[in-house]
Amino acid sequence: MRVAVVYERMRPEERQIIEAIREMGHEAVPYHLNSSPLSFEGEYELDVVIIRAISSTRAQVTASLFEGLGVRVVNSSRVLSTCGNKVMTTSALVKAGVPTPRTKLAFNLEGALKAAESLGYPVVVKPINGSWGRLVSLAEDEEELRTIIEHREAIPSPYYRVHYIQEYVRKPGRDLRVYATEERVVAAIYRVSDHWITNTARGGRAEPAEITEEIEDISVKAVRAVGGGFLGIDLVESEEGLKVLELNGVTEFKNASRVTGVDIARELVRYALGGF
Amino acid sequence: MEAKCPVCESPVQLPDDVMPGELVECPSCGATLEVYEQDGVFLLKEAEEIGEDWGE
């Protein structure tokens, strides 16, 4: 089969995916977005496209282009759009009854203060399309929230006029990153950090995690809630059990592969080729 | 394989197994450069800065 990999940066993950395609006896067709344009008239003769663009916008539009050509795309543009927007993600999780922290949306300072008051401080304010934990803010009290909202409203982007305000889940110095499809969990790690933001991109340390029944159950339900795919799911351990923080459609996994020994690139290729 | 730094025009050595999308540093001026390919030739451009919608 001819398996395309659409990407911008050749990171360890993209290398591993291309190697896995070749090792599994298929033809890898890398498409570097900064080298050549893509065409709606393209006769690419592909069987599967794996989307690996780091920019969520480029990931969504390239997925959409190949879908128009009738090619199977992993992950699909719909799933990438849902995962690329925290409001759409929360909406899908709530609709499917998947546990997620209590969240409110506000559209100005007064609304944000009311939302936080009803959630109870501390609260977390997140960009609705953010990533790598950037610009995620913790407000311990009203004064801090006022400052955060004023800063957000000074940013000239309509996305920052939507204030996504979430209860702060007191976690035990770690959270979970799970790699899963709509059928099963592939690997799971703890991300351990002294800081409340535990992304490994932000210095969180990866440690292998046992895949419990609870992890398997919530992760598979979360993937199904957003429409299926091969996804990275962030879970937090709350007093009421696991809750889903977010899902990632173009997931990074080099640290997770290293500490768990699971060849996540190969699992992704297997999924893309139609195996669950 | 050799390419030219678009910032200082110094020659930059590329590894034999280089792939488009790799980042390299210009040994002369220190610029971070992205390898891209045009008509079978590997060229260098200044690496894009991290965008608002980058990451996971």
> Any low-confidence stretches of chain B, pLDDT <50, length ≥5?
none
Q: Biggest β-sheet of chain A, characterized?
A: 5 strands, antiparallel
For the sheet with most strands of chain B, the description reads: 3 strands, antiparallel
Mean pLDDT of chain A: 95
Spatial shape of chain B: globular
CATH topology of the largest domain in chain A: D-amino Acid Aminotransferase, Chain A, domain 1
Explain what the structure shows:
The complex is a heterodimer of chains A (276) and B (56). By secondary structure, chain A is an alpha+beta fold. Chain A contains nine helices and 13 strands. Chain A folds into three domains: 2-82, 3-Layer(aba) Sandwich (Rossmann fold); 103-167, ATP-grasp fold, A domain (Dna Ligase, domain 1, 2-Layer Sandwich), CATH 3.30.1490; 170-272, D-amino Acid Aminotransferase, Chain A, domain 1 (2-Layer Sandwich), CATH 3.30.470.20. Chain A has helices at residues 12-23, 56-68, 77-83, 86-96, 109-119, 142-153, 213-225, 254-260, 264-272; strands spanning 2-7, 27-32, 48-52, 72-74, 103-106, 123-126, 137-139, 163-167, 174-180, 185-192, 205-208, 231-238, 241-248. In chain A, strands 11-10-9-12-13 form a five-stranded antiparallel β-sheet. A four-stranded parallel β-sheet of chain A has the order 2-1-3-4, sandwiched between helices. Chain A has a four-stranded antiparallel β-sheet with strand order 5-8-6-7, sandwiched between helices. In chain A, helix 2 (56-68) runs antiparallel to helix 3 (77-83). Chain A is globular and about 60 Å long. The two termini of chain A are 17 Å apart. Chain B has one domain. Chain B has no helices and five strands. Chains A and B meet through loops of A and strand 4 of B.
